[in-house]
What does this fold into?
Amino acid sequence: MSIPEGTTGAIAPQPQMAIAPQPQIPHFTWGSRTYLMGVLNVTPDSFSDGGRYATAARACAQALRLVENGADILDIGGESARPGATPVGLQEELDRVMPVIIGIREQLGEIPISIDTTKSAVAQAAIEAGATWVNDISGGVQDPAMLKVVAQLGVPICLMHMRGNPKTMRGLTEYQDLITEVGDFLETQIAAAIDCGVAQHNIIIDPGIGFAKTANQSIELLKKLDKLRARLPYPLLIGVSRKSFIGHILDRPNPLDRAWGTAAACCVAIDRGADILRVHDVAELQDVIKVADALIR
It folds into this structure.
């Protein structure tokens, strides 16, 4: 795996975490620039855009706008991950995401598509319909079959740190050492994925800012991303877009009022080693990221 510029000489990982060879994920050359993942929630209850793209037609139209505005990958989710969200059944999640993935693939050709799910059956159906990789906010924990299915499919997976689930995570924010414990979890899940047959070059990690973390913990995690990066030199996906820690800093309860705060957080993430930024406001962040890349990388 190619390590993003600026991390040469980072602390070596443990032997079982040896750096993988050059990645074989189409469209991405890690370290060359920051990639934009456009958020497309096909849900009625997501925290900032719930219900806006709840039909396949609206979702596909938004996908086209995101790509035109510079998205490098589309992240399709059919189950809200906002704090307190109620879980969605398998068939309902499939009914939400499958028409959208099929429609995007028909209309937008080779644009990479990430399926945001914790269910292996959804992941498999989505990949077979044309999705490119799996984004599992539970890090492969919630569905014991997930890692094996991803290995069999031979696709990349993003492993995120979270405790509990969206309904319970707000009560699971006690840490002795936040950075160490997040790193321990990700290291364990990387090893589990490799044991199941997932290729090292197909592993992406996400520390899960805002998931089972208070506003202050999210701020700490963002400040110390470089330490996590040094320990686990895998492609790093960061999601700060419109999140509550930004509202906490700015005293802005409406997520739609957090675009500039998101831009600032994204610049810090790039400085600390982020490879992919998961954002809602692709057009606005495109300029921010181009300038940050030019100054930082």
